[in-house]
User: Which sequence fits this backbone?
């Protein structure tokens, strides 16, 4: 049978209860049979009907007494035996049932079946989240806030249990299992037609790799977003066409490099990809000059490469001996003041505390600040549990891998056009970014805005699509971005990117850009503006009002009359 | 030889033979149909049903369903007997005997199917 794995609960129970059930049947039948044979008062023995009635209430310890007539001594002797047999039989059966309920395999089978049923009941798009660690939690919470469904697979039962404690609006089915097994992914709805994406966020690179390859083979159309800490695994994932690979350290190094040479582009990027509901604090831009880096691990290595690309001199402090030429290398532990002084901390402009130990990182940062108060401090936070300490110390940038991954996932999943836009921003010079950023911040402030993409086709923007196909009249972008409640007011949104099917695109399109059917737009603005825009492109009456200011009459009769009136005038 | 298979086959065939034993004879002659034989058939049928629990194969499922049919028919026969003897109070009249025996005849058909499946399964495996 194809999906035998989770239908087994009932069969497992039945198989386990075979012996006790047969025992009960035998005890009942022997008791009834004996009672029909034993001579009663006046030599008349009981009939099957009465015997079965009597045994039924005696064996279950209900005990109505001797019915229909007082028993003979022979019958009492037999009933005495029956009572003890029945007690043993029931005790055995109940013990078997309780043992079954306590059984781990049975509980797992029940849990799996319940999960499979919950997944099958989801009739809305959902995301499959593998790994409910810090990243998984952030992603799930944000998806839930955005009204998206999610299904969670997690190996650790403790962490899976936490999910019930967090208050989610929608019900998130969770199963404690190994997500790297394809059968479990299938169980969690990988092949369901409602599955919109797979997020491999476990802290095990190999598990993420297994999830990526399962998704690629079992559901090639579904995008997989995979976390990869090591470069080899990332390369492996890329080799079979994983849609998005997220390397948190490489990502941050890229951000840092961007911040070094194009601070405004960097701010634009953090503002657009921030988590909804948070405010971006504009910190000072990382200065160019001598930098000190403590801890040359996987993160440190990627950062040093980024510094090299930006041609920023960096001194490395690490316990291990120097690796290759090209950098000043100080051997030792950055937590001590003398080592930092040997690395010329007084002349440095910035420090990166990138060891794998949070307490060490904080200690390095505090000591370095004392020696040089103007330092630009970048701190790496390994465990979210320490975030109180990191909040108390005012670093310039705190690198939280789980947040980087979560933000990246959400941006990619919810706004597919954001990626090409950010790519285009990186290609422009910083003055251009500054101009765009200033304009946007003036309108929307530093609160993270709503960023969304919309495709102007027949299913997502039916009214606009039909309007464009029917009247060849030109519709300018600026005409659409008007408030549907009062068209004199502009809509609280701006277009960032316009993509056409013939691989043509316009970055930051002007309000005079002409819209064509099938265009895809990336918009930024307030949440209310998103709803208003959806209404405009979806509802014909609203669209006509926004474009022309005319209120269309509803219904065939009124439309007919309105057309006649138009003709006569 | 597998002891489990011996017990399994034993109960299935016994259920069919006991059922047959009760069924043969004139349809409405109570002297040809012993009530103890019906009792034995019911008990053995129940045991056979429980033995078939928990087999997940297709053939196991058909096995179980034939047994459930036989159980249902035999319970109905026992209830008709109980009604005739104790509630209607007419005893094993030809009319009630005919009802009970025909119900057990239905159960026997299910039991025969069960035995056929058993034989088919044995031949299929060739071991």
Assistant:
């Amino acid at each position: 049978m194809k999906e035998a794995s989770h239908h087994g609960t009932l069969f497992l129970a039945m198989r386990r209860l075979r012996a006790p059930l047969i025992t009960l049947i035998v005890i009942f039948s022997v008791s009834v049979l004996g009672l029909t044979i034993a001579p009663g008062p006046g030599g008349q023995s009981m009939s099957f009907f009465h015997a079965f009635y009597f045994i039924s209430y005696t064996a279950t310890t209900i005990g109505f007494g001797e019915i229909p007539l007082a028993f003979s001594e022979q019958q009492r002797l037999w009933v005495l035996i029956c009572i003890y047999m029945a007690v043993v039989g029931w005790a055995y059966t109940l013990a078997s049932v309780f043992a079954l309920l306590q059984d781990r395999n049975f509980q797992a089978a029940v849990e799996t079946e319940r999960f499979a049923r919950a997944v099958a009941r989801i009739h809305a798009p959902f995301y499959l989240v593998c790994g409910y660690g810090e990243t998984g939690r952030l992603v799930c919470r944000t998806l839930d806030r955005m009204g998206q469904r999610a299904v969670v697979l997690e190996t650790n039962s403790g962490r899976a249990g936490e999910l019930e404690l967090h208050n989610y609006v929608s019900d998130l089915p969770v199963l404690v299992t190994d997500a790297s097994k394809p059968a479990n992914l299938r169980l969690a709805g990988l092949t369901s037609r409602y599955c919109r994406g797979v997020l491999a966020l476990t802290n095990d690179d190999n598990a993420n790799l297994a999830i990526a390859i399962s998704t690629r083979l079992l559901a090639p159309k579904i995008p997989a977003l995979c976390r990869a800490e090591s470069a080899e695994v990332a390369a492996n994932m890329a080799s079979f066409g994983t849609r998005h690979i997220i390397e948190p350290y490489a990502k941050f190094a890229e951000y840092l490099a961007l911040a070094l040479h194009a601070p405004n582009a960097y701010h634009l990027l953090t503002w657009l990809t921030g988590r909804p509901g948070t405010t971006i604090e504009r910190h000072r831009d990382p200065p160019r000059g001598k930098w000190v880096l403590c801890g040359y691990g996987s993160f440190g290595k990627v950062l040093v490469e980024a510094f090299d690309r930006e041609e920023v001199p960096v001194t490395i402090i690490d316990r291990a001996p120097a690796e290759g030429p090209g950098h000043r290398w100080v051997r030792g532990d950055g937590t001590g003041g003398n080592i930092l002084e040997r690395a010329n901390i007084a002349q440095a402009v910035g420090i990166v505390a990138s060891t794998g130990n949070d307490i060490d990182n904080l200690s390095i940062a505090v000591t370095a600040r004392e020696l040089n108060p103007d330092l630009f401090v970048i701190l790496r936070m390994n465990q979210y549990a320490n975030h109180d300490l990191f909040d108390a110390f005012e670093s310039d940038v705190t690198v939280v891998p789980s947040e980087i991954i979560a933000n990246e996932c959400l941006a990619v999943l919810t706004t597919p056009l954001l990626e090409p836009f950010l790519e285009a921003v990186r290609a422009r010079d910083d003055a251009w970014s500054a101009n765009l950023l200033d304009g946007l911040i003036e309108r929307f402030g530093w609160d993270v805005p709503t960023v969304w993409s919309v495709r102007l086709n027949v299913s997502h923007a039916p009214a606009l699509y039909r309007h464009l196909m029917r009247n060849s009249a030109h519709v300018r972008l600026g005409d659409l971005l008007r408030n549907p409640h009062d068209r004199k007011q502009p809509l609280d949104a701006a277009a960032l990117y316009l993509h056409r099917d013939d691989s043509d695109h316009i970055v930051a399109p002007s309000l005079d850009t002409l819209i064509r059917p099938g265009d895809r737009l990336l918009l930024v603005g307030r949440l209310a503006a998103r709803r208003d825009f959806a209404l405009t492109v979806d509802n014909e009456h609203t669209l006509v009002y926004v474009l022309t200011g005319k209120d269309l009459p509803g219904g065939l009769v009124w439309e007919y009359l309105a057309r006649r009136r138009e003709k006569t005038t | 030889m597998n002891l489990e298979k011996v017990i399994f086959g034993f109960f299935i065939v016994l259920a069919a033979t006991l059922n047959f034993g009760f069924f043969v004879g004139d349809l409405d002659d109570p002297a040809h149909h012993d009530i103890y034989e019906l009792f034995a058939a019911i008990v053995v049928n129940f045991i056979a049903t429980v033995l078939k629990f928990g087999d997940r194969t297709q053939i196991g499922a058909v096995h179980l369903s034939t047994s459930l049919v036989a159980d249902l028919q035999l319970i109905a026969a026992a209830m008709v007997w109980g009604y005739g003897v104790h509630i209607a109070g007419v005893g094993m009249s030809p009319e009630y005997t005919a009802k009970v025996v025909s119900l057990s005849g239905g159960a026997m058909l299910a039991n025969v199917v069960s035995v056929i499946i058993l034989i088919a399964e044995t031949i299929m495996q060739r071991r």
About this structure: Chain A touches chain B through 22 residues (CB under 8 Å). The domain at 8-102 of chain A is CATH 1.10.287.70 (Helix Hairpins).
